[in-house]
Specification:
heterodimer, A: alpha/beta, UDP-N-acetylmuramoyl-L-alanine:D-glutamate ligase, Rossmann fold, ten-stranded mixed β-sheet, B: 16% helix, elongated
């Protein structure tokens, strides 16, 4: 019998067609973690909830991807279990739409649920099912690992269960946002919430790395992310988790998490399973000492607030500002502090006199001097924006140019900034990379 | 009857998303006419280890070449990529030019699988700060 059983919902992920990407439909939910174990050549089992129309697809897919036992724990009615994903890269809020979510009805197969008690490592990924019902129904002797990224706001349901081996959460989870106070946050206080519930807790911080704590040894570790251009971020957190679970018996705490970080990035770089697998096997053949030495990007959530970003753009109320809005929302989503000077300091009137112009100029320069970074949005060749790019570069302020319409041709404009790109994902990765250089890790 | 209904749907503008296609052994062109077929299949047919890249190097001012010579190599200087705690660009005479940005860390896994990378300096400037851009490709 294999060691790991992944427990949770299986649904259909549909990444909607966009300017850059065609529509893509894949089995989602716990299948992302399953794909990863297949790529690692590790046999596993699946215990799932899904509507009956998906059963044949699930069976076919899993038997082709290394799954040795498939257990259906319950049926889902009244809902297609279909997730529409508007924006796949988590540049900002991804716009997940779970079709007919409010109507989900699950019937539990109690005889099947008893079968999961036999596994050494049970990995529960939270979803629409009742986790407490599962754990209370069986006398689990193995280790329980639980990802509470989805649908969990209240931890009280964990108090009746046996102590959990590992709890995973992310900065985009409800539990994190409910417990994040920008003025008093400390990761140790956050981890303390889990002190009596689990042996280890792991906080995934998206492109800024991850932090983890072992309550038995008191060890706090910080793991860099391998921040780079990605294709999607759907299921990447689950992949991170399952790599850790698979390697936690054979590697050190931080060693297993470093492999998690590398392999999760590879998952985000492709939706082709064979491409993913070939890179996973190469990574697993790379010694952990090398993985650790190579480093990556570390930028904890709470530190990003101190990164003030000046958005240089023709941010006037008479033009279409949607690229600026999207950039601002993406920066806010990742907890950076963007500034829109025209919004903050005012828009110059057409007939403004010298003194009004001077007032706005002084305020904008003061704001620029306060900022750690400048991102220019080239909606057209706006003189103010172009001058601010030059000023920031001369002041050695890291300077990025977001060129959504690919209009930059002038060599001063193309060569001066740290990055010129029409790809917002690339822009966000560069923000992480540039600001993380100023950050000293634990 | 089924086919008629299906055809009717297509004429109404519904393309559908066909079938689950991301099987490792899925034939890439099985459903070549379907919308989105370019993203289907088990493999992209491209190995990321085999891709060439162009990048600026990190920490040029702190690496051996600039530190010992207070100058930078001319455009066209041949280099190779080596692992010395980080991935570093090295000249033929063994001097480090600068580090590859960490987004290229995956190349170490490629190197451990038999890939080797060489390239040339495509841009180098001492002022305002020492900077080098390199073109790198897998060695054939």
């Amino acid at each position: 019998m294999n060691r790991i059983c992944i427990v949770g919902d299986i649904l259909v992920d549909v990444s909607l067609k966009s300017k850059e990407n065609p529509l893509k439909m894949r089995l989602g939910g716990i299948i992302h973690a399953a794909r990863c174990l297949w790529a690692m050549d590790i046999e596993y089992s699946i215990a799932y909830f899904a509507p009956s129309y998906l059963d044949v697809h699930i069976y076919d897919y899993l038997t082709n991807h290394g799954c040795s036992e498939i257990i259906k724990l319950g049926n889902v009615d009244n809902c297609p279990y279909l997730m529409l994903i508007e924006e796949v890269k988590e540049i900002g809020d991804q716009g997940y739409d779970f079709v007919l979510r409010d109507d989900v009805k699950i019937s539990y197969y109690d005889d099947e649920i008893k079968k999961i008690a036999l596994y050494e490592d049970l990995f529960f990924i939270s979803g629409n099912y009742d986790y407490s019902h599962l754990v209370e129904s069986v006398s689990v002797s193995g280790k329980i690992h639980l990802d509470i990224a989805n649908n969990v706001r209240d931890l009280s349901f964990l108090k009746t269960a046996k102590k959990i081996e590992t709890i995973f959460l992310s900065t985009s989870s409800n539990i994190f946002s409910d417990n994040y106070d920008p003025d008093s946050f400390s990761v140790i206080c956050l981890f303390d919430l889990f002190k009596h519930l689990s042996k280890r807790v792991i906080l995934k911080e998206n492109r800024g790395g991850s932090r983890a704590f072992d309550f038995e040894t008191g060890q706090l570790v910080q793991i860099p992310s391998q921040t780079q251009k990605i294709k999607h971020s759907v299921g990447v957190g689950d992949v991170y988790d399952v790599v850790y679970i698979a390697l936690s018996n054979s590697k050190t705490f931080s060693g297993a998490l470093n492999y998690s970080s590398w392999i999760a990035t590879e998952y985000a770089k492709t939706t082709y399973p064979s491409d993913f697998k070939s890179m996973v096997l190469r990574i697993l053949n790379t010694p952990i000492s090398e993985i650790v030495e190579l480093g990556g990007c570390i930028l904890p959530w709470e530190c990003r607030r101190k990164c003030h970003i000046y958005i240089a753009a023709p941010d006037f109320n008479f033009i279409n500002r949607s690229p600026i809005d999207i950039l601002e929302n993406s920066l806010l989503y990742h907890n950076f502090t963007p500034h829109r000077p025209i919004m903050e300091n005012g828009q110059m009137e057409e007939n403004a006199n010298w003194s009004r112009k001077q007032e706005l100029f002084v305020k904008d320069m003061a704001l620029l001097n306060k900022c750690n970074m400048l991102i220019a949005v080239l909606l057209y060749n706006d003189p103010g924006t172009l001058i601010e790019i030059g000023l920031a570069a001369e002041k050695k302020i890291p300077t990025i140019v977001y060129d959504p319409f690919c209009i930059a041709k002038n060599c001063m404009l193309t060569q001066l900034p740290d990055l010129l790109s029409s790809d917002l994902d690339e822009i966000m990765s560069e923000v992480f990379r540039l600001y993380s250089k100023t950050f000293t890790s634990l | 009857m089924y086919l008629c209904w299906k055809n009717k749907l297509n004429t109404m503008g519904s393309t559908g998303s066909g079938s689950f296609s991301d099987y490792h052994n899925y034939e890439r062109n099985r459903n070549a006419n379907a919308e989105g077929s370019n993203s289907n299949g088990g493999s992209s047919g491209e190995d990321q280890c085999a891709r060439a890249l162009s990048t600026s190097l990190d920490d040029v001012a702190y690496c051996e070449y600039y530190k010992t010579r207070r100058d930078l190599p001319p455009i066209g200087t041949i280099l190779s990529i080596e692992f010395k705690t980080r991935l570093v660009a090295i000249t033929d005479d063994g001097l480090s030019l600068g580090y590859l940005p960490t987004k290229y860390n995956y190349l170490r896994a490629c190197m451990n699988d038999g890939f080797a990378y060489t390239g040339a300096v495509s841009s180098s400037n001492v002022s305002p700060i020492p900077s080098i851009i390199v073109d790198v490709a897998p060695k054939l």
